[in-house]
Design goal:
This protein is an alpha/beta fold. It is 46% helix and 17% strand.
């Protein structure tokens, strides 16, 4: 086991900032090599620096006229977070990071790192009411703050960026292995004990399941629950709201499989669940087996038309590739792996997938479009373009437990619904040809 927890964190941050690694995957790969007692420290410091990156860039810019090398900047940002948020005495935080600077071959920068940490001070914020203020204050890229403010207005954007999501994990009961009542009785009514302490008070209910501390989930059999966000589950409720009995459904972008599996369980239909990558098809298969769902997983390119599927399905779902900005609160690395240029490219891809999927829907069938982003360019604009070019389809207003009134579009926002940001639009294909 490694005992150099600060160096582990430094290496992880460089993988994200330098190599565009996914934070959750990099962290999960690294944690098994850490001492168990160090894992919470590494996790908190790693995600903390990612979440505060833009803010710390402003702190650094205030201290130094010239931007340091990226590897040196990572060291300074780690020190900033230790000074601000960790139970480490200031002298120890400075000493540890300067020592780390020398260990990783940056001894020449140790004086700069030492001075930057000893002179740490909050930056002078840009004027309130500006996108620049939002960017520094809430540590979001400036381009994104400008776009969100254009989409929703300054006040709404400020409230959204200021929201702090729960760090608990949302799960739904896997009723293939345990009843909802038994799960509630066993794990959520004060009978669950961990390290001699009742843990039920840490459980929070949602309309679809429970928010549970990760440590508690480690002590519950994997077969008794499945991890799925409340927003993802709400999307499936929107797909299926008011839907008559159906036989065949299609999920074109299904991995890891949560929505496809839940669609099968809620409708009783057979679901064909697709992904373009073979290893992600395996994820869908594993998910379906765990939940005993009628799902067939297969490899498929969602942008390429398959003639044998023409007008075959009662329900087609396009949970399209997107910027993922609706889940940035839980996955802050998304903010650094996306650029404004990506949004136009993603919108074009999203429309292409929706355009192909439309040909698979039976007359009278339903087509659903969803994303885990909050940008209008990827959401309402794509839906509107689709309607303008596909006169055979009309809006199908739907509701969910989080949005009980029927709406033409379901828009979930972190600070409003206490979920990830999510979007769903549902269309019905007319019985008669246009």
């Amino acid at each position: 086991m490694r005992k150099d927890r600060d160096r582990i964190c430094y290496e992880l941050l460089n993988k994200v900032f330098r190599d565009n690694a996914y934070a959750s995957i990099a962290l999960n790969d690294a944690l098994p090599s850490c001492e168990e007692a160090d894992r919470p420290y590494v996790t908190k410091l790693f995600y903390g620096v990612l979440e505060r990156n833009v803010y710390y860039n402003a702190v650094l810019a205030q201290f130094a006229k010239e931007k340091p090398q990226n590897a040196v900047a990572v060291l300074v940002k780690m020190g900033y977070y230790l000074l601000e948020n960790m139970r480490v005495p200031p002298y120890a935080a400075v000493h540890n990071i300067v020592a780390l600077c020398k260990q990783v071959g940056k001894a020449g920068a140790s004086g700069f790192v030492n001075a930057a940490l000893r002179h740490f001070a909050p930056p002078v914020l840009p004027p309130s009411g500006t996108a620049e203020y939002l960017s520094v204050r809430y540590s979001y890229p400036l381009w994104l703050c400008r776009r969100l403010a254009d989409d929703y207005g300054y006040a709404f954007t400020k409230d959204m960026l200021a929201y702090t999501p729960t760090h608990k994990t949302h799960v739904r009961v896997n009723t293939a292995h345990i009843s909802a009542a038994a799960f509630e009785e066993k794990y959520c009514r004060g009978r669950f004990i961990q390290d001699g302490v009742p843990q039920a008070e840490a459980v929070e209910r949602s309309p679809f399941g429970y928010y549970m501390p990760r440590k508690q989930l480690e002590s519950i059999p994997d077969s008794h629950f499945t991890v799925q966000s409340a927003a993802s589950i709400a999307a499936v409720y929107a797909y299926t709201d008011g839907l008559p009995p159906i036989e065949e459904a299609l999920d074109l972008c299904a991995a890891p499989g949560g929505k496809a599996v839940l669609t099968a369980l809620r409708t009783g239909a057979h679901v064909t669940a697709c992904d373009i990558h073979p290893h992600r098809v395996e994820m869908i298969e594993k998910y379906a087996r765990r939940c005993n769902a009628r799902v067939t997983a297969m490899q498929n390119d969602a942008t390429v038309f398959r003639p044998e599927w023409e007008e075959k399905f009662d329900l087609a779902v396009c949970d399209a590739p997107c910027s993922g900005l609706g889940v940035a609160g839980a996955k802050p690395d998304i903010l650094y792996n996306r650029s404004e240029k990506d949004i136009d490219e993603l919108a074009a891809l999203q429309y292409a997938i929706l355009d192909t999927a439309a040909r698979y829907v039976k007359r009278g069938g339903r087509l659903c479009y969803s994303t885990c982003t909050v940008l209008v360019k990827e959401n309402a604009d794509v839906a509107q373009r689709f309607l303008q070019t596909h006169p055979a389809f009309v809006r199908c207003p739907v509701a969910t437990p989080l949005t009980p009134e029927k709406q033409a579009e379901i828009c979930l926002f972190p600070h409003v619904h206490e979920t990830d940001g999510f979007y769903v639009a549902v269309f019905t294909k007319k019985e008669e040809k246009a």
